[in-house]
């Protein structure tokens, strides 16, 4: 079979330093997506499981499609095979947990694991709007939010979620700023709460989603993260209806979102991923240069 020379990436791991994070991974529509943050011990999706993923303890699953989920249990198995002592933790939408448990069990039995030896990995059921600390990184928390991706019938969507990773810390309340050590100790002795929790949004991952998620007022907080990672599956003129039909984002919808939120957003970097495999790298980069307004072009990074 003749090689497809237009394919912009054939499973080669991509690495970008963006703001405060290093993002290592791969994301091509229909092939696979996994996005690792090595320094933060966190990965979003596991469509493939390279060796670099074995040491990562926390994995968030955006949705159940195979190009994002199929190597979840490969990750779990490889860690055990390599002697990693810490149990990995998988953060999955509460809607998907029952199905995930059945899938994991069936896969283990298919591979020949005796029923009496089978044990589910640790799964945390994620609910939209709840901040959950990472098990092995108490300085980090995640918050999931519902997105709209593939439609089932006229009104329902398959469960899908985006996620924001926060730096989590306690800071002295404003009214106690300037107090010396003796005063602080005395306040603590009196049982007075002198600190407040602070959640600093570091990076947000949209996962696969319709482009109108980017302009949804209920999801406006995605633009407060220093880094936003969002899919951009389609970039050519005339593909807007195809993007909607397949539950994905067209670059024109990103441009619309920039027009709405650009003047006020705190986001410093926008990483575009999940491009269709039919585009070449040159075509993707050229289209971004052509279609993204100049005022925001420096924020855009193509994950290719």
Q: Would you mind describing this structure in some detail?
A:
- By secondary structure, this protein is an alpha/beta fold.
- Helices cover 23% and strands 30% of the residues.
- The chain contains 8 helices and 16 strands.
- It has a 7-stranded mixed beta sheet with strand order 1-2-3-4-5-6-7. A 7-stranded mixed beta sheet has the order 8-9-12-13-14-15-16, with helices on one face. Strands 10-11 form a two-stranded antiparallel sheet.
- A hairpin with a 2-residue loop joins strand 8 and strand 9 (137-146).
- The longest helix is centred in the middle third of the chain and has 14 residues, at 97-110.
- The two termini are 24 Å apart.
- The mean pLDDT is 93.
Tag the structure with descriptive keywords.
single chain, 304 residues, alpha/beta, 8 helices, 16 strands, 23% helix, 30% strand
Helical coverage, percent range: 10-25%
* Structure class: alpha/beta
The total of beta strands comes to 16
Beta-strand residue fraction: 25-35%
Point out poorly predicted stretches: none
Count the helices. How many? 8
Kindly report the spatial arrangement of strands forming the biggest sheet. Answer: 1-2-3-4-5-6-7
The biggest beta sheet, please?
7 strands, mixed
Distance between the termini: 24 Å
Task: Choose one word for the global shape.
Answer: globular
Radius of gyration: 21 Å
Order of helices and strands: EEEEEHHEHEEEEEEHEEHHEHHE
Indicate the mean pLDDT: 93
């Amino acid at each position: 079979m003749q090689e497809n020379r237009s394919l912009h990436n054939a499973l080669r791991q991509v690495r970008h330093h963006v703001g405060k994070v290093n993002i290592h991974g791969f994301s091509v529509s229909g092939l696979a997506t996994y996005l690792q943050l090595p320094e933060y011990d966190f990965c979003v999706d596991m469509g493939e499981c390279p060796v670099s993923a074995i040491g990562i303890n926390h994995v968030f699953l955006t949705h159940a499609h195979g190009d994002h989920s199929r190597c979840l249990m490969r990750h779990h198995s490889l860690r055990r095979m390599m002697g990693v002592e810490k149990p990995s933790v998988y953060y999955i939408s509460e809607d998907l947990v029952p199905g995930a448990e059945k899938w994991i069990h069936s896969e283990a039995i298919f591979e020949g694991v005796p029923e009496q030896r089978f044990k589910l990995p640790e799964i945390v059921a994620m609910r939209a709007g709840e901040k959950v600390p990472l098990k092995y990184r108490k300085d980090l928390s995640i918050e999931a939010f519902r997105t709209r991706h593939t439609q089932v019938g006229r009104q329902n969507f398959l469960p899908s979620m985006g996620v924001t990773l926060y730096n989590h810390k306690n800071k002295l309340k404003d009214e106690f700023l300037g107090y010396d050590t003796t005063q602080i100790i005395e306040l603590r002795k009196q049982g007075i709460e002198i600190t407040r929790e602070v959640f600093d949004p570091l990076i947000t991952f949209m996962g696969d989603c319709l482009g109108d998620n980017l302009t949804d007022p209920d999801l406006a907080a995605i633009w407060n993260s220093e880094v936003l990672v969002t899919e951009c599956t389609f970039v050519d003129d005339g593909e807007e209806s195809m993007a909607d039909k397949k539950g994905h984002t067209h670059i024109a919808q990103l441009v619309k979102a920039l027009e709405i939120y650009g003047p006020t957003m705190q986001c410093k970097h926008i990483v575009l991923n999940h491009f269709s495999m039919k585009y070449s790298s040159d075509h993707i980069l050229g289209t971004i240069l052509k279609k993204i307004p100049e005022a925001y072009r420096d924020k855009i990074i193509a994950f290719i």
